[in-house]
Amino acid sequence: MRKPGKSQTRQRILKFIHDFVDDRGYAPTVRDILRGCSLSSTAVVQHHLNVLEREGYIHRDPEVFRSIQLLDRKNTIRVPLLGSIAAGEPIPVPSSETWTSEAIEVLQLTEELTQGKEVYALKVNGLSMMDALIDDGDIVLMEPANTAEDGDVVAAWLKDKQEVTLKRFFQETGRICLQPANSQMKPIYVNPEDIEIQGRVIGVIRKL
Amino acid sequence: MRKPGKSQTRQRILKFIHDFVDDRGYAPTVRDILRGCSLSSTAVVQHHLNVLEREGYIHRDPEVFRSIQLLDRKNTIRVPLLGSIAAGEPIPVPSSETWTSEAIEVLQLTEELTQGKEVYALKVNGLSMMDALIDDGDIVLMEPANTAEDGDVVAAWLKDKQEVTLKRFFQETGRICLQPANSQMKPIYVNPEDIEIQGRVIGVIRKL
DNA sequence: TTGGTTTCCGAACACGTGTTTTATAAACTA
DNA sequence: TAGTTTATAAAACACGTGTTCGGAAACCAA
To answer: Tens of pLDDT along A104-126?
Structure first.
């Protein structure tokens, strides 16, 4: 009384879990799976779940009800939109307390975009970032940072011009090179003491 | 021995649920909340959960363990990355069957970005879209469309030039105006029969 | 004060649910 | 063929968990 294929029951179970989570928003129990896949013993389900976990498809916390997690699902992360970024004013830099308390709005993004880092978002005000290919109304994802590595795109405060700019950062001997994303535009060079790194840009989102 | 504020306990509970779900991937039980919020009776938690549900913050399925769902969570949607978009070639337009079968990769995005529409994604190849403030490597979110309204940003195939372009669409008398996002650049005008709308752009994503 | 509402406590009940055990049958290996 | 591994079945155990109830404490309004 065994299935012909190698393990088509396991495929059914995995699909059932997917559908169940999509539908109900939480994971099924062993007995939910039993009924949903027309099996007749919890031990069968138990066995297949163990195999699925060993093979890396799911994760379970032992003894915890409804704790099946599908490992190909990415978590969504709540990203606080802390304010705006404009040419003439420094950007809001989050303290540990502003994180959700002072958020104007809370975006919900996946690790696809946040890359697992603790980020915050800023809305771009005006056209001053156009040389970084950033439009009015775009949302930039920032990672808090005071320093930068070569090649990072940073939000830099230029003390002499009293303005913030988004450019690619390169450390050179005695000076810093800030390169626009738009390669048709020329880089600018500043003294290290005339610049203040306010954050690292890890993404841009434009909703139309 | 009652809390001073009006119902700060309820706030604590809601925050605890958020953190718990973020951390573990499934919802807490009544007793998890009890311990996590330093309360001493499940009935207290039960009461606050009822209020939270009545006020629309959460949803619970009666008698089901760990069934608390946070209603401000947006669903994540699997978006197929169907190919690339480059200057000299038409963009891949999805049939109903390519939807996930021919996907090069599957992005996972929230309704925040997809706006609830059925979208697909294309990776931008080259710098030809720079006048739309789109960089090499950016990902554009497309909604299938053959027509456009005034103001839409569309992917248009220009028959005479044999190239695809991303521009804002405006219908004028006898001609069509295609306006770059970069306002420093001039719009172009084409005959209605020289243009073919291949899709509507609803978003742009740049990962750095 | 008075009454009414909300919040809290402690305890108990009922059952959903993960787990284990034993047994049987099918498939694979040598 | 015999031996091993895998898949299935039925039943039972142990406890996690939603729910309920009676009563007390804090707050509010008249």
So the answer is: 788 888 888 888 888 989 999 88
